[in-house]
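Take a protein:
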Amino acid sequence: MAELLWNRRRWLGLLAGTATGLGSRLVLAGQGQAGGGRVVFVILRGGLDGLFAVPAPGDPAFATARDRFTELAGAALPLDRTFALHPALAQMHAAYGRGELLVVHAVGLPYHERSHFDAQQVLESGGVQPGQLRDGWLGRALALTHQSGLALSTAVPLVLRGWRGVDTWAPSYLPLPSDDLLGRLQRLYADDAALSHALARARGVQAEVAAAAMPETMAQPMSAASAPMPPGKARQAAGSFVALSQRAGALLARPDGPQAAVLDLPGWDSHVDEAGEHAPLTQRLRELDQGLAALRMALTAPAAGDAWQRTVVVVATEFGRTVEINGTRGTDHGTGGAAWVLGGRVRGGQVLSDWPGLAPANRFEGRDLRITTDLRAVLKSVLGPQLGLSERGLSEQVFPGSAGLKPLPLWRA
């Protein structure tokens, strides 16, 4: 596999951001908290259908509501008497069996208006209404503890904004700057504190990524890791969710690695032809399944030590979908849905849900799965022990106005 290279836009964006005061603190290799907790947040953009990913065949109203999707429930992977996992989530089901995966159902945000853009703003900001907060809950959490974060993307997502100790990284096949060019830039920026600081920071991030280099097979889908790839597909695979998940795991496993990482997986809008072996939504579920398994693989590698035991992964989306199937064999924007929490210390092997039922009288506005668990309660329950945050800090600064949301039983005794 060709070497993953630094993106020129990343250099320019980082330099410009620092020059305007957005990155005035250097967080490089060696400044993380060795042995500390790690948090990974995976954003599923587009509104995952929680009842497709985690069907409820044990609910008496499920078969009627999902009459054309019930064949999936029959082939689904059982969790308990009520719930199952979509068959594309086989490795997540194995994690559930090991007690490392916790399913949270009928979960969602305080915002219920079903706009992708507004719901994603609320999801990442940690507020109650769109635009209420201008930075992100994870950025504010890291700022309180002076810990570092990394987005596996070309730009800092909203969820990480609000703290200067955040970097981004994404693969590129553009040539790396030569040592001669870097030396010239270093001399050119010597009298400019902001630019020289940004250059040093960018070089430090690149060095940290290079130190956490993964084997060639890491950028390939796990089911086809042994098959050679043409150059074009290899380039695409290098930026895939699976490859980025493995890279994130390798970085998080380092004693001097970041305390938090954010991964982004788009493509979950499913208005048309939702079901089927080769439907886009099924393919997305397979990609998610492979990516989370790849992340765990990197965190349980011999060199990673106890990294998996110190890591918690939260997978969430901006809203769920309607309970009923629409006229184009898909589902429309809804409210309640499903989320997952994974990790070596997670109290997995269970579905955490105050299940409201799927009968029409039990639905939100007669159409959606009713939210009975606020996603912020899940996030607060993770951030407190993982990043060492107090209840006061969580309720007043990370998720303002959330004092009434109590911790959930996510942890093993």
